Every structure is written in structure tokens, then in C-alpha cells.
Amino acid sequence: MQWHSVLLLSIALGCSARAPGAPAPALAPPVVLPSAQEVALRTQTADQQVRQAIDRLTFGARPGDYEKVREIGVDRWIAGQLDPARIDDRATDAFMAHFPTLASAPADLVREYPPPRLVKAQAKREAEKQRGAPGTAGDAGATSDTGKQNTGAAFTHDDSVELRQARRGAQRVIADVQSARVARAVMSDRQLQEVMTDFWENHFNVFAGKGPERYYLASFDENVIRPRALGKFRDLLEAVAKSPAMLYYLDNWESTANPDEPTLAAVPAGRASERSRLPRAPGLRPGLRPGRRFPAGAAEGGRASRAGADTSRTKAKLAARRPKGLNENYGRELMELHTVGVDGGYTQADVIAAARAFTGWSIDRPNLGGAFIFRPAVHDAGVKIFLGDTLRAGRGIEDGEQVLDILANSPATARFIATKLVRRFVSDSPPPALVDRAAATFTRTGGDIRETLRTIFTSSEFFSREAYKAKVKTPFELVVSALRATDAAPDTTPRTAQRIARLGEPIFGHRDPNGWPETGDAWINTGSILNRINFGLEFATGRLPGESLARWEHESGLDTLSRAAQVDAVIGALLGGEASPDTRKVLVQGVNPLLAGAAAAPAGAAAAPAMSIAPATKVEGFAQLVGLALGAPEFQRR
Amino acid sequence: MNRRVFVKSGALALVTMGLSPTFLRRTVFAQALPKTSKGKVLICLFQRGAADALNVVVPHGEDEYYRLRPTIGIPRPTKLMAGSAGVAGGAPGAVDLDGFFGLHPALAPFLELWNRGLLGPVHAVGSPSTTRSHFDAQDFMETGTPDVKSTADGWLNRYLAVQGTCAECALKSSPFRAVSLSQQTPRILEGTTPTIAMASIGEFSIRATGSDVERLEALYRTGSADLIHGTGTETFDAMKMLRAANPGQYAPANGAEYPRSPFGQDLRQIAQLIKSDVGLEIAFADVGGWDTHVNQGNVTGQLAGRLADFGTSISALVTDLGDRMDDVVILTMSEFGRMAKQNGNGGTDHGHAGAMFVIGGSVRGHRVHGRWPGLGPDQLYQGRDLALTTDFRSVFSEIVCKHLGAVEVGKLFPGFEGKREEWVGVLA
Fold first, then answer.
1. Is A388 strand, coil or helix?
2. A111 CB-side CA count, 13 A
3. Strands B196-197, B178-180: parallel, antiparallel or unpaired by DSSP?
4. B214 and A604: CB-CB below 8 Å?
5. Distance to chain B for A229, nearest Cα, Å
6. Three-state SS for A445?
């Protein structure tokens, strides 16, 4: 690609992105914009190009967005979105204070909101203690707020109250991270970064419902994915590989060398360079870490000396729980889903080699919200052949890192990632030539996501007529786009996230590692169409917190317009500015053109039974117009 | 797209005028359907995640089983219980079926089905593909073309397409002919013939006044014929039909009690749809949680929990349907089985052959079907998994032919050379 014009935008970008009083960013690098020849290849009109850019790089236009992007110039605006660090997003960050659990480290979350089954187990243990020693005042207060002594029954009323609280608390942890995702998508000015966070969290799918996974999600979202969403793929891949969220989800945390393989058992665990910097949880009981062996003076310091204080019973219990073998799950999905793809040319032997390389990549106290730790004692240090390369014997964490290097550099990975990106941003049938160019950029730049996206967003395919409004909105995109279009305030309650879940896309709720579907035909079926239409009607009656059609109507001046003019405005705001004459007629007059002039039964309603099982809501005026528009086929697209 | 719309709204009119559009007269199913195909229902239930067949239909008569699974194996039945009415009180082992095979104790509700001759387990059945990827293997089983990724449609959709091409069949094309109780259309039903996916019957309606519903309908019926408009049009057709049938308040019959689980409620609604006589012929539901790599338990634990829900739900469905079970076949499937030997984490890794249940009035009961290859070291597939002795397409073909009356099944499984003589004979 030949760039023929170069514009220096440091001053322009600095002025438009920086809020008064903010520290001055470093001088922006020169931004290269597409040439006039390249722009001439685009078959979309100028207006369509603006809408396309907004539809694809954001979660939907807010009032005024079309005008703003048109003024800045679509290519310049795209360049700005590709550089989120220069966009002031402090308001969004400040809003996260509404979700208090986000700020806590996983270990603190586990303490404050223990999982219900732990509470239950604790209650059972206390009850058994009571039964074993009747008449002792003992720990009567442990599970009972009122200090009532527990009887022989396994649960008292107080236990079940505590259990209910525990369930609510555990639910709170998930709800906060889901609501934060929604709020960021609704309000952040770093829209492309949010879209890419959504993309990568689907690519690196994890499931909130598995074990203690929920405690790791906020950190996964904020510390692992979002900061790297537009960076180097290799960095993202490693951060994910070392994240407790992924280590737990794909079972690698308990994958250990098979008994017949050599390990690094003589080496002390937890070398400082391999530890994540999470704050240590105080009050941890000593000796609760299976697999550790500490020579005197090891990096662990004080804890090492207390390790010898284990009772033999605890040791036996730990020994019984200690995992004893290789788990292939992560090794397989790393290749099949994260990097080279199922046709990437690997064999079962490679899966095993990868799994062996990642033995020892684990979590320190996984049920207590611990951090990444590398355990040499269970790392398979034998020689391995992976995709034709030799992983030398006797190494530790370097084995896994080399596997990540090999995979990140593979042309198959470039192609796999490029295909997914083009599918997300251009069309369900990714144009092969664009995939080729995007993969080439990926390879040439050492896996630079930003540059790969730039190749896509400046391409003629991205701005082709075939790609216009070609994608179907996922439930997440549907709901967020409705909120943004009507200038809604972000929701501080979990209700919006719940509505998205009921539309079929619970956030962090996909059980299998392959993530949500990426093509429209998977999201559109008779049931989902009804669900989406019903969503539109609920929205029109003000059921989602934060939205206010009345406010939008007033602030945008729509309440002063005639119905016909309102329809045009709504078509502009919600339906991409283009609607067929029939659609317009239906929205303006509320008349069914199919019945007009046909010799049908009067309105059809007399002969047919009631159309809805559920109670019908009557919407009128502006709300009715919005409800119809949100349920319309055009609103399902982006 | 045009053909579909035509078949649904145009064909009926044509037939009543005595005309049969030529494109409907396809040769494959040119013969009139046998009368027995009227009102037959096939319910396919997919256990996603590769259910551990060896712990579901337990080969307790095989010593190797216990050598391979020292801690997760299901103990032998404490006494043989063939013919008895229920599980012996407190017996911790397998529920015996025929002296060699037994059921996981959490599937105790199936014993009654076995005793009534309704239960036809098929063992060592699965896909010849060597893939150990869940997604690929599910894809292959749903498209009915192992190792071919380019197949665009599911085998059940091909059945619908092929079966719906004679004049009388046009009358069968109710929008509810094939229903999946799920948010998304499963691969097995993807294809040119329209099918319905609904998360629940209750959600299959629009919460608005009649006039607003009509307006919304107009928005979908006008405009370009694309995926969204086309599907929307079908949606409105189907909704009207369902309202007319009025499933309303549903009370399961014969004292059937469905679990409150999603799977249990899916089956309850399938029963509801069957009894509403909306023309349901194919029903589909799936249930996950079978990928027991870690800590799967034995008579209790993770797998047992899944099986309890599974068994109780299906048993409730059979009870609820009562006499209708003469016209119903329930078919369970999973993409592959699990390794014969337990792994280092108290679970099992991906395997090869697995087991299916065929349940219905026409089942040849009181036996486990298929050919048992054994679990000896030289009998295992790749030295690690239960070997395949029956191709899943063979079982599917037999059911589609004998139960649904499909005359030629060759079109359903392109590339499959299986012969009628090789069918396991699970159906009479």
C-alpha cells in the first residue's frame, strides 16, 4: 500500500482529545491517512462511510456523533480511535466506583464474598463440632449471629440466612463485572478499545460459572485484556496464559508432569520474577501449599520456616488432593481456539508437547483468589518437540514462553486472527484479499493488533457497498446501541446486563471455550427475533434503568416536531438514515400496508385469538415510534 | 428463500386446487408416505461435552473396567436386579440391566423404562473421525458427515428438506415441524428448511397490543428478502399458529414431575408442543456439563449429578407422554465418549466410541444393542479408548427409516456406505 499523503495531527488531536487541566500527552506520532486514490475505491457514499465507521468501531452512534465524525473526517477519526491512550476517559473510570467489588483484589473478594459452598462446608463443620461436643459453649457463635447454640441439625435458620447472603455476595461479584462491561460500552469515549475488549474476551473465552472463576473476572477484564486490546498479540497471549482466569478455566493450574517425566523438583518455587504483584493476603495458614519444597533461605523467606509446622494429617490430605498428571485442555485450546486454529496443522503429539511445556503454570491458592505462580516441582522438564521445534530439556518457565513465541509467530496464527478480525469488522464472509493483507500486516509488524486493524479500517472492502450494514448485532451490541442512540445514562444496577443475558449472551456466560458465534445466522432465528422485538417494546416503556425517552425526546428537540418529522429523525438516529417507503409509512401512520386494500377480515383481530400470551403493553406517541423502530429489521443490523 | 415461502403459503393453495407444482415432485421421496409416518415424533437430545459412556452404561461384567478405573469406576451391582421394580435399597453399585451391563445408579429412573421394554441402549457407537475436538466432533455428528467441514446443513434439516417434497408432505410443513428448545438454532437443524428455535414457549410471543404487533409484522414482511426479514416473516406465521393452538396452562399427565432444571423444563415444553398438535415432528434439546476432565466422581459427584437431572427429566417426559410414546422415539447422543482409563485428576480425557439411548414404544427392549468390543489393551482404540463397532449414522438411519418412514436415507448421510443389514436393530 502506497501512502501518498502524511498529515501531522499532533496539535489537532491534542486539542480535541485533551480536557482542560489534563496533563499534556507526549507529542503524537504523525498519522498516515489513506490517499485520494485509495478513498476513490470506496463504493459507499461519504455519508455511508461515516455511518460504517461509527457502526463498526463503536457500539453505536450517540446523538451528535454522525455530525462530529463528519466534521473531523472519517479517516482522521478512525486514526484517533486507534490511539485510545490519547482519549480522555476519566469520566468512565470514575463511574466504575459504582461497582465497588471491581476495586478489590481477587483474594480480598474471596474473603468478603466467600463462595456459598465454602460457607455451607464451614457451617457443616461447625455443626459437626457441636454434635461431637455437646454442652460446650465452644464456637456456638461461629455460624450464628445471635449466639444461639447449634443443635445437632446440620443447618439452623441463621445458617441459611448466611448462605443466602453468601449467594447474593457471590452473585454481586459477577454482576459488578458484567455491569462494568456494559457501562464502559455505553459511555466510554475509547469506543474501539471497548469493542476490541469485547472481541478479545470472546476470543479468550472464560466462564463465570466454573469454580472460583468469578473472582478473577474483574482483573481479567481490567488488567489483562483491556490494556492490551490494541497492542501486540504476543503480549496479550502471555498475559492471558498467566491469568488465573484462564489457568483455572482451562484447568492448566492443576496440570502437572506425568510421573515418568523429570521435573525441576530441586528448584524453589515462586521466584520473584515470576510472581504477579498482587497484594499478599494476610493471615494465611502456613503449610497450605501442596508441592512446595523450600531449601533454607529460599525466596519465600519467613513462610518457609513455618512449612515444617504441618501436622501429618494436613500433609496426608494435601497429598491426596495433589494432582497427579498432565491435563491437555489448555494446550489444545491454545492452538485450536487462541492461535493457529483447528486447521493450523498441529497434531495430538503437539497438543501433548504444549501441555507438557505449560506444566507448573499455576495459581497460588486458587480457591483463595491467588495469583500466577510457576511451580518448578511439577514442571515437566524433559525434552519436547513442538511443531517441529525442540524445547530443550532442563528448562522451566521458558518452555511455555517458547511455545507462545512459536505460536504467536506462526503464519497460521496471523491468518486465523486476521480472519476473525475481518469477520467482526467487515462481513460474515470475510473477503479473502483483505484477510491476506491483514495477515501480512500482522506478520510484518510482529503481531501488532493496532496496525492490523488499520489495514482493515482503511481498506476499500471495509468501505464497500457489500459491507454496509452487513453485520447482525449481537445481543450486547443491540442493547448498548439502543442506549447510546437515545443518550441513556449508564446503568448502575445489574438489570441491563441481565436483559442482555436474556437475549442470549450472558457476559462471561459462555460455557465452552469457543465463545459466542461471530456470524449473523447464529443469532437470528424465530425465537430470537421475538426476543429482540420484545426488547424494543420494553425499552420503549422505559424498563431499562438509565434510559429516558422523554429526556431524549426533549433534549433533542424531537418533541417539537410533527410525527412525520419525528419518524425521519428516529430513522436517522436508529435505522441508519435509510428506510424503505413502506417502513416509513408503517412508522408514520401506524398503518399495516399489507392490509390496506386487501379483502381481509376487519383488522384481522376479530377472527384471530389474542396475539400475545404475555400481558400486552400499550405504547403511544413517541415511545411507540421508538419501540417499533427498535424492533424493526434495520435496527438489528450494524 | 422464495421456495420456502412458496411451500408454506403457496403450496397449500395449489394442493387444494388439485395442482402439484413440479418442483415438489422430487424423485427421492416420490412414493407416498406410509400411513405410519403420520404423527410420528423424533426427539433428539444432545449431551454436549462428550458424556462418559463407560460410566453411564457400565460394563460391570468386564474386569478390565475396574483395572482401568480404580477410583472412578461404578461398583458392580450388589445383587442382580433384572426384572425387579426398582433399585434395591441403599445398593451403591450399578443398576443391573442384563448381567453384564448396568446403569449408573443416578439413572435409576431408567430401570422402569428398561423393565417396560422402552429403553434401548446402544453401546460402542460413535463417529469414525479421529478428531478429539469437541466442536469438530459435535459438528460432524450434527451434520452427519464426519471429517467433512464443508457441509452446510444439519442432517435433520436434510431430512426435513427431502421428506417434505411430495404433495402430501406439503401439508406437513407446519412452522413447528422442527423445534429446538434453545436460544440458537443448533447445527443439526441448520439448513434451507425453516425450523424454529425458542428458548421457551412463553417467550414465543410479542408483548404488545394487536395493532402494534401488526405494525411490527408489516416491518418484517415488507423490505428486502434477507436473513432477518425472511426469518421474521416465519416468526409471525409461527406465532399465529401457536396462539391458535393455545398451549396455555399446561399440566403434565400421569403424575409426571419434571425437574426444575433447564433441561427438565425443555423436555416439559416439548411434551407441551407435542400435545398441542401444532405439527411437531422433530424436537431438539441439548444439555451440557459432560466434559468431566477433573474430579468426575463415581456413584456420586459431578457426573452423577448430571445423570440425575438427565434421567429424571427423560423419565418424566416418557411418563407425561403416556400412550403417545408409541409414536415417539427419544434419541440421545454425544459427540464422543471418554478415555477408558481414568486420568491423573480423577476424571477422564476425550475418548472415541460412546453410548446412545433410544427410547420409545417401538424399541426392541430388554437388551443392550451394538457389538461390545471389550476393554482389553488390544481391544481399545489407539490403546486408550472404547473402540467403535457401530457408526452413529447407522443408528440414525435406522430410526429415520423405521420410525419416521423415510424411504431412502442415502441422501441424509452423503458419503456413508452403511447398509440396512448392518443396522443394530434397536427398533422393531
1. coil
2. 12
3. parallel
4. yes
5. 26
6. coil
Chain centroid offset of residue A525 CA: 24
B255: how many CB neighbours lie within 10 A of its CB? 8
Cβ-based neighbour number of residue A515 at 10 Å: 16
A431 to each of A29, A224, A337, A474, B226, how far by Cα in Å?
31, 31, 21, 21, 20
Read off the pLDDT of residues B21-59 as tens digits, 9 standing for 90 and up. 322 322 223 233 333 345 899 999 999 999 999 999 999
Give the three cell numbers for residue A513: 471455550
| Distance (Å) from the alpha carbon of B215 to chain A's nearest alpha carbon | 6
Tell whether A620 is within 8 A of chain B (Cβ): no
Q: Which residues pair with A389 in a beta bridge?
A: A386
Q: Is A314 on the interface with B (CB under 8 A)?
A: no
ipTM of the complex: 0.76
Structural contact between residues A475 and A181, judged by C-beta atoms closer than 8 angstroms = no
Chain B interface includes A627 (CB < 8 A) = yes
Per-residue model confidence (pLDDT) at position A511 = 84
Q: What is the pTM of this model?
A: 0.76
In this structure, how many other beta carbons lie within 10 angstroms of the beta carbon of residue B333? 27
Minimal-distance CA residue of chain A relative to B237:
A526
In the chain, the amino acid numbered B44 is C
d(C-alpha A430, C-alpha A415), whole Å: 12
DSSP letter string over A474-541? PHHHHHHHHHHHTTPPPPSSSHHHHHHHHTT--TT---STT-S--SHHHH-SHHHHHHHHHHHHHHHT
State in Å, rounded, how far the first CA of chain A is from the last one. 28
For residue A95, give how far its alpha carbon lies from the nearest alpha carbon of chain B (Å): 32
For B163, the grid coordinates are: 421428506
Count contacts between A and B (CB, < 8 Å): 198
- Percent with pLDDT over 90 in chain A: 57
Q: Look at the block and give the residue holding cell 433384572.
A: B82
CA distance A182 to A507: 9
